[in-house]
Amino acid sequence: MRMLLKLAWRNIWRQPRRTLITIAAMAIGVAFSMAAIALSDGLFEQGFDTVVTRSLGHVQIHAPAFPQERALYDTIDDADSLLAQVAALPLTAAAAQRLFGYVLLAASDQAAGALLTGVAPGREQALTRVAERVLRGRFLDPQPGSQIVLGEGLAETLQVDVGGEVVAVAQAADGALASELLRVVGVVRTGSVATDRAGAFVHLAGLRSMLGLERQAHEIALLARELDQIPALAEGCRTALAGRGLLVRDWRQVQPAVAQLLNLQSVTVWIVLFTVFSVAALGILNTSLMSVFERTQELGVLLALGLGPRRTVALVLLESCCLAALAALAGGALGLLLDWYLVRRGIDLGFITQGWSWMGALFEPVLHGSLQAYGALATIGGLFAVTLLASLWPAWRAARLQPVVAMRQE
Amino acid sequence: MKTHARPHPALRGLPGAGAVLALLLSSNAGGAKSPPAEPTVEDLLNRTDDLMRGKSSVGTVTMHVKTARWDRKLTLKSWSKGTDKTLIVIEAPAKEKGTATLKVDQDIWNYLPKVDRTIKVPASMMSGSWMGSHFTNDDLVRESRFVDDFTCTMESRPKDNPQQHYVIACVPRPDAPVVWGKVVARVRGSDQLPDNITYFDEKGTLVRTMTYDEVKKLGDRTIPTHMKLVPADKPDEFTEMSYGDLKFDIDLPDSTFTLQALKR
User: Any idea where the domains of chain A sit in the sequence?
Assistant: First the structure.
């Protein structure tokens, strides 16, 4: 075996230029595959964090009809005690309740329909990034008050800005015409087109008393401590709220489209990897086949000297593996360098965009990679697998040579 | 014939009610004092117009709204002048006292005493409920446009039996911005007062029915004093209105119907 390895190592350096070119091609493939995986993982994490964790929440609780109808009356009754109950579950990292209300917002000259979201400012920040999305002014103060934070587009429609006043008018739960005078404390850009155009945030307590829904909420959202505990958290909520007739769903059920798109993203990476490795495989096949054909006479001599077919196969495979090992070293090093850059610096698309929104959430303009061991392992493992596969045919050809015929070949 | 809506003054103050009766009324005043034997649609409109019309009115109405979600009893005071000016103020319950609606031409403002602000109802909210009733803001505005928007024909008249009705069918004129596909009014053969009005959508499905009864002498006129609107898809719900006191042809200054007066 040692002898074979030594032989293989010598053989590959008989054509140094070809060997180096092949190694370079494979190494570049490895490096870019690693970078692609890191970037894709980074995007996935960023997407998951932005769209799921910091917007939807991991688990949502509603009245059964609410997701479809979004009607004022599809409420979670006695929401405060229910919130306390699910917030106390061991898997819960954060929990918040929201109340929604369609209202007419009127400023001095303009009026527009708007969807108010009543939030408890302290709790809401633990879940969503809305408070970080303030363009001007500030988010709602922790103490309940007659404050409102307007979506960017809504503020424009109403021609009102921080410091201004708006009147919210709505039909309360008892049919009466309810009204509330609110001071604009901030303007936000959340990345959700609907919210930015016609949404606003107010204190939960204020919206409750305005709508006459003092003990209700429309939504309770929760975060799990660990991502792999999300299904367990959903199950825990179902158990805790059994008999309440409420709908408990994890984010996949809330937004199947997001779940599908996030899945699709990992599929895309595998397609890229497959393509890269297919090209690498053809390169190895070519190199290996060429080297076998060139050495027909020599291999005939080796066979005649008693190198059996199995060891001949092993020799050819070892030669390819030497190439792969060198490529893995070089490519791995380059790949780590690229990954490090992607993680630390990222790709700044600031020259194209200020940030973009997808699925109702705002993304930073800098794409960051995420370095995970499996990225390098999968790439290098894949490289060796592809190398061995591609060398099988040339190795088999070498082993099948008839020594007498082979030695005669010019 | 050029026609203008001229709602029953007692109803002008109320959304929908005016629109409902507008089809029975026209500007061709001076019709016969007694019901003609074989009235045409025009005669019928003129006759009702003549009987029920007032230049202005002041009245008190109790409104009872019952829906799956709430049961509201409101006392309203209304002022109206001509077809275009209406002011309605909630007097009870105490929680909503002072809430007021002003309609001038095609515009509606709500005065909200809690925040001391007057809000103009925007076009997007016109189809919304008025004060939690089954009437929409649009009903309130449409009252002065009914005859402009619809063409009415007599479908049948009472034969020998005065218990039978005149049936007047109204379809919207082309391009009229209305939600109804057809409106059918039944007028009592005996005294030519409205009995009920049915509203159909563009597919011909019944949407709501307004019935009139409790014909009484109010002020110096005999009119139906109770009206009930029932949505066809929710037969358990209704909005009911009963007239308390009602005075016609009061001298009301135009300043009654201004935003300043709304705030009082």
Answer: 2-52+259-408, 64-245
For residue A301, what are the CA distances in angstroms to A3, A350, A410? 16, 64, 13
In order along its 264 residues, chain B shows pLDDT tens digits of: 333 333 333 333 333 444 333 333 333 333 334 555 677 777 776 666 555 556 788 889 999 999 998 899 999 998 888 778 888 999 988 888 999 999 888 888 899 998 988 888 888 788 888 988 998 888 877 766 667 788 888 888 887 777 888 898 989 888 887 888 998 988 888 887 888 889 999 999 999 999 988 888 877 778 888 999 999 999 999 999 998 888 887 888 888 888 777 776
Cα Rg, chain A, nearest whole Å: 32
Please give the backbone phi and psi of residue A81, each rounded to the nearest 5 degrees, phi first: -75, -35
- The DSSP result for A53-65, as a single string, is IIII-SEEEE-TT
> Which top CATH class is B9-263?
mainly beta
Residue B114, min C-alpha distance to chain A (Å): 7
Domain chopping of chain B, boundaries: 9-263
| Residue count (chain A) | 410
Tell me the count of A-B CB pairs closer than 8 A.
60
Q: How far apart are alpha carbons B42 and B50 in whole angstroms?
A: 12
Instruction: Name which of A73, A111, A179 is nearest B69 (Cβ-Cβ).
Output: A73
Judge if pTM exceeds 0.95: no
Q: Is B116 left (phi over 0), alpha (psi -120 to 50) or beta?
A: left
